[in-house]
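Listing 4. Sequential folding, example run.
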Amino acid sequence: MQTGNTIFVGLGGSQGAEASKPYGWAKSLTSIFFFFLGCFLWSRFSRLLGPQQRRTLVWSFFLQTLAMFLVAGLVAGGAINGARSTIPNDIDWLQEIPVAILSFQAAGQLAGSRALNLSEIPTVVVTSLIYDFGSDPGLRKPLTQNVKRNRRGLAFLGILVGAVVGGWVSRETDRMESALWIAAAVKMLVTVSLVVWPEKSG
């Protein structure tokens, strides 16, 4: 996610004021900064409470869920312009708010993945996931013999299907908040599952 943003910042800085979107890079810079800030704070929050404690994971994903619902509510309520037709335009500075919130909460999602020792599921970047999947020496093993490969494959399919569904919903409604509501609901389900998930015996 931040690889693309870094490229956009670099390209935007090289274009100058004569570009069609002279401040388009600002969203990418905002995303990078708040993702970094989120990494800094979420990791410390996790270590403070115990990274693999149920309460830590529940609180983390609960706060992420609230952030998602907040952004969806801001767009649905009209405080932030959520029309797809505004995407080709130059920056609307109010749209920096949802970019900042979503980037910050995404860092919490990555912190949760690290806390659960699920490094094979980076959750926010696909490039390394595809490499790890393709380079896995046990790629052709039966399903029951390579759990990490299975997780990588399912993670890739989940991201792909999520992108397709989100894009289709946004196109049909010509708005962005519908996809945000769906994403927030999915994250809420993850939070609830963490609450009821049985403890590992032993």
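-- end of first protein; second protein begins --
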Amino acid sequence: MPTTIPPLSSFLPPLICGTATFNSQYNPDPYALPTTGIVHRALSSGVRAFDTSPYYGPAEELLGQALDTSFVHDNFPRRDYYLLTKVGRVGGAEFDYSPSWVRTSIQRSLKRLKTEYLDVVYCHDVEFVTPEEVLTAVTELRRIRDENGAVKYVGISGYPVLVLCELAEMILEKTGEPLDIVMSYANYTLQNTRLSSVALPRLRAAGVDVVPNASVLAMGLLRHGGVPVGSLGDWHPAPNELRSAVESASRYCDDSGDRIEKVAIRWALETWLKEGATVGSRADSISRVSGKSMTVEDAGDSRRGVSVIGVSNLEELDETMQVWRSIIDGLENDEHKAVETDAKGSERAWSLQRQKEVRERAAVVKELIGSWLDHAWPSPGLDFANKRSRHLAFPAPLPTPAVSPKQTAVQTSGDDGVGASSRI
């Protein structure tokens, strides 16, 4: 069973910054987001990987603009961070997995992201096309990998975990080579843990190296304010009964002096580090020292589950990084790292106390969600039909500004922008 060398798990970080939020599906005007500031702050805080897609509206272009700045060029050479993007999904009901479009899409992503290579390329939302189309696209991506190295590692992404398992098994059987990576979203959350209970045994058996967990808030379902409503309106597929159950759980968190999104984020990030470890990362967990990177040798042989989390503003990013550092401080085998990075005993004690609080509140939240635990909405819907008219021409480019608002470069040392009141 041949695998790509070196394995992706040897260097892909366990925390990836997602950019699906750089899109009108989540925000009414993605151009009004401080996207450059977010990317700069993420890098300065120790994040070394970014997930995006041509389907996410202007996300690829906004990410590329943020990376193509003197601040990034001077402080973070391309070899020090990783870019993950996708092919195949063109629009809401448009998919093209043909070899010609795969190559066209790769060239467009390289141009938008202003890079000579892509570290990971997924076939996007594979449940919307046939297994034969997925096999064709994976084969073409591997051909590009072997021809010129514009693609380094190849995987698939989607929602239904059974479909992901079946495709991973089929690709191994047909090609003799396992997928490097399989990403699912909204399937390891407070509401749904099927990625662990159903998918992991089969994906491991199919030789998949890394399985990232994305959308820990279930595409915004697990939020105090309810599902996100962008310029596309209320698109979230969760049924009203599930939304009502989540609202009850949110009220419980409010009454406890907490927020459901804070409980959900910390619970998913913390538990997936262990649950997803067998298909996780051996790379740097992100040092508490801003901008400092740890070698794989320092990290040792342990693996940690990989998570993808998106933010829409600097405050959300700062809160996410604070909870991540707190989780790392609280890991049993990370005590020496906490000491080495000036995480005093009081910080570790707070992390362990917060860990206990979150576990207790998560248990009550699950009770309130009740029969809707592990509910998975259908994807695609019964009325889906692929509207794609295949062609080789590029779609009209989206108007991307030279830089996003509030794009002031973030310093690589000093204030990390996190206040005590934002603790998760």
